[in-house]
Amino acid sequence: MSKAILYDATLCINCKQCEGACAEQNHLPYDDAVAAEDHQSEHKFTVVLNKEEKYMRRLCMNCGEPACASVCPVAALRKTPEGPVIYEASRCMGCRYCMVACPFGVPKYEWNKLAPRVQKCTMCADRVQAGRPTACAEICPTGATKFGERDELIVEAQQRLRQNPGQYVNHIYGLNEVGGTSILLLSSVPFEQFGYRTDLTRDPLPVFTYRVLSRIPDFIPLGGMVLGGVWWITHRREEVAAAEGPPKEEVFYPSGHDGRTK
Amino acid sequence: MKIKPTFWKLVFLFLMAAGAYATYVRFAKGLGPSTNLSDQFPWGIWIGFDVLCGVMLAAGGFTLTAAVHILNIKRLEPIVRPTILTAFLGYVLVSVALVFDLGKPYNIWHPLIMRNPHSVMFEVAYCVMLYTTVLSLEFSPIVLERFKLHTPLKIVKAVLIPLVIGGVILSTLHQSSLGTMYLIMPEKLHPFWYSPLLPVFFFLSAIAVGLAMTIFESSMSAKHFGRQLELPIIKELGRVLLVVLGVIAILRFEDLLHRGVLHLMLKPGYEMYLFWLEISLSLIIPLILLTQKKIRASAGGLYATSVLVVLGFITNRLNVSITGLESSAGMHYVPKWTELAITAAIIAAGFALFGLAAKYLPIFPAEEHSAAAEPAPAPGAGVLVHAGD
Q: Looking at the 3D structure of chain A, how many domains does it have?
């Protein structure tokens, strides 16, 4: 079944151990300077934000039906059945459509390299494949970041909301956003304060393009038939006109619809 | 022949030199140092102008071939060749621009073997590849005629109609798909430009621009190659353009109305000004002009209108790809000099190649070449005719 991460901001103590573990897992440098950076980048896949002692993590949402994977012309980005959205740098040609399409602005680019890669959290795909939790969830000392089955985590999140209604904003972020994501968030302050858009559609974004794209196979034979038919009719008129010689009754068709105008 | 260092020749040389240096910066230092692109704004003018506008400006190719070969409107025949030449050059230059924009351009062939049929860009890549092939075949008779290669010429002429039909279908698909690409970002693109009808608008505007470009080119080549202007043909195109613009205007208004965003048209702001600039240039002024019989009948009036339409829909594509995405990105994107230099060099190369082809290949009907007329020293292709001397 599909795995997920539940992050409960009310349990978070801003120790940033998830950031460090993430950097180590992804072979990225991590020091005090990186820890102080307050946004995701090509060398920082997750970040704990701090707003007046309220905390919130940001990381790739690993969408159920990811826009990035749907737009990638070479299928470098892919949703795995276990949940992670993974990236294969060797396929990528660097069109950056994934970055433009992502509703969360997650994929980052190695702008200063000559063979740049798209960089993002891939939900520790190889660990998850091996049945282990993500690095961030494993290291979390308070259980704020919890790894598990998505269905079970949803039930748990709903329980927490029911049991402590005053403590939370009544919203599981990621349950329905863009069709549902593999990251679920709980917070005591509105999600917008940390840059999470709450006006996102509940439809998976790939539906918007696929609605149009899926018509193409039908369009090709139809278009060919119509165009071929028009060609046949317009040229047939000409052949007929040529065979019949100069039509004497032309005067009765002043609009020239016999195809012989001038 | 003498090589005279005219003003436009110097401009051309300057643009090519700047472009060459910018090319060095791009490939020696990478995308970061050579562009103002960033994680917030990953697509700039190389996509917004070079690709989106480039493909649109080349749309005369399929519009004209469809009119002449499929609808059998024979009187348009004399201008088919220059239009196919423009289209062919357009697609070649779009591919060149893509090589600059792609982070790993040496992987540009990957869609051939790594398929994702759910990706609009995958579909666009295939259509553009196939259509460039179709265009080179449609263009090949011009070259084959020049070198008197009769057998291949016969073969190409025999398959011309299926080629034209294929070309029209491929064009319909990828012209509209460039709009479909933006359907994936309903929350990011400003409501002036995000519409479920984006593919329809991109397709219709390609037709309008295809017609406008054909008028523009005919006027330019009449001026600079000392040829007679095919005024009756241009007038006919002007009438069709009027109808197409009318359809786009009505659809655009209905779309804004039904999406309930008409009130934004009066809400002052960055987007509103650029929206009105686009609408005025592409629809309002050309529609007013073209409904005047006097303008429709005059070479100058039609030329001016076609320039407006081209500029208007360039504004439209830049609005979709840049203006409309700025507020969700939370920043303004201004291209770096390197981005502008490469775009300018690509445009200049296009003019030069057109001039060369017009000079050495039978692009224009032979009987209309009059040796007496001297090319006027006006902007554009004029000087570049001599670029290869």
A: 2
